[in-house]
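Page 42, continued from yesterday. The earlier attempt failed because a stray header line got pasted into the input along with the sequence. Redoing it now with the clean sequence only.
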Amino acid sequence: MIEKNTAEMKANVRKAMQNIKYIATTTDSWTSHRQSFVGVTAHWIDPESLERSSVALACRRLKGPHTFDALAGLLNDIHTEFNIREKIVRTTTDNGSNFVKAFRVYGPDENNSLDTSSLGSLAEGHQVVEANENEEDDALGVEVEAVEIGSLLDEEDDSSEYQLPKHHRCACHVLNLISTVDATKANSNETYKKLSRASFAKCGGLWNKSARSTIAAEVIERECKLQLIRPNDTRWNSLFLAVERILRIIKDNGEGAIRAVCIALKVPMLNPAELAFLTEYVSTMRPVVKALNIMQAEADVHMGWLVPTISLLSVKLDRLRISA
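This time it went through. Structure tokens are written below.
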């Protein structure tokens, strides 16, 4: 029954995309319970209702190393299975080096596109150069050996093995990288570096204790009336929300609530300078979180939202820098 329903669902998806001219896809890979997976979704605008339609094309196991050619082969197979390879205008992925290389090697070469009107002159120029080289070889008495290059090309050039569409990097992932990787550049300031490491280390102690023990969770709920939020490594805004929750508890219940939790869990208490640092961190990064929430929404996710969101974020960050 499962196989029958799967085949029927795939047939319905193919039928839905049969008359669609332009399709965009998104692709992601992840690891869960020591198993790796690749997910692919397709999106298009319905020609009659002008509403966006979305379907999940695949969620497949990825065995072996996550190399660029393994990803390229899997994506090529999925696109071919649903007969949309020639219809895809863009595929959006994160900034993983394996995805970037897969589309660089097997995707269209946009930098080397030629104007068809110049092909004639280019061909003539090549013929002139080739003729001149042959004349020079004859004059020098050089023996030219004919070599079958077809097999050599097949061995050396594997870029035509798979055909991938144009690539687009996920704006949310780029913004996440800015919030994590680029933000560490502030550590060049020794005062910032010292406060940052001390503050997040103490917060990390609270988060770890609250997640590992039900007794600790009960202590936090009794003293703070709220549970702590533990950050997720793959979502930077979860770190922001976790810090914001600690500051909210202090604002609503006073520093005594957090101090009582720290004493009960044997975690060092945040000092005034560290609390001030966390407060400024939340205030500075709040516009980034709002921008991420807009771009991570289930609806209204298209290029019409991207440029205004990024432009407004840039203006807000500039205002913060000027006020500082």
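Notes: The two ends are 64 Å apart (CA to CA).
Reminder to self: strip header lines before submitting.
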